Amino acid sequence: MADRLPPGQATVRFDQRGWGTSRALPGPCHLDRLTDDLARVVGACAPGPFVLVGHSMGGKGSQLLAARAAARRPAGVVLVAPAPPEPPATVTEEYRQGLSHAYDSPETVRYALDHVLTAAPLPEPVRATAVCDSLAAGPGAREEWPLRGIAQDITRAVRRVDVPVTVLAGEHDRVEPPHVLREHLLPHIPHATPATVPGAGHLLPVERPDAVATAIGDFLARLRR
Q: Is-above-0.85 flag for pTM?
């Protein structure tokens, strides 16, 4: 994604607590703590105006940080197939228990990638990287989101978001379908601008990186006007 952004655009990327190169950091890895971590990254690495870009679970944390009264507010937020602040009725206990096993093994990850997370097969090198990344987590981090974070209602906080927001949805997203974002996110951030990426599933950054980069670039250009 960074390679596709406008030339010279500075970016900061990090692995969330419990994942990847941050795997050894101690838990718990609940949403509020991940948002605290995000605030620290912003404080350390973004001395000037900044835009938050959050995908899926990261989108929920980005909403929460943008709503915090005591936090440095972003100039804007781009939510990419984000988890909505209000959990839909489909997020049942049974659903969450099943989701908590999606990253149990390479086989379960590949099944999720091929049948749930994407709308079309990923190129094999990208798919292989996604499998490795999905398995690079401690048990606490892997289970925190499906068992608790996905069901956390943050609507009261998110209604305080008052910066420009763009919401990208994948046309064929089975995880956060466009209608779920219309019904469970947009009512709480009514000034957000929604857009749907044709032919894409939930993994927009790897399925349609050019479309996502273009949307981010257009958003940055609008903020500078």
A: yes
| Per-residue pLDDT tens digits for 163-199 | 999 999 999 999 999 999 999 999 999 999 999 999 9
Confidence label for 51 from pLDDT (cuts 50, 70 and 90):
very high
Q: How many domains does the chain have?
A: 1
Asked, for residue 164, whether it belongs to a domain, the answer is: yes
CATH (domain of 176): 3.40.50.1820
Say if residue 28 is preceded by a cis peptide, omega within 30 of 0.
Answer: yes
Q: What is the DSSP string of 124-146?
A: HHHHHHHHHHHH-B-HHHHHHHH
Residue 110 CB coordination number (10 Å): 15
- State CA 85 to chain mean position distance: 12
Sequence-ordered alpha helix ranges (H) in 68-175: 93-99, 106-112, 124-135, 139-147, 155-158
Q: Which domain range does residue 12 map to?
A: 2-89+153-224
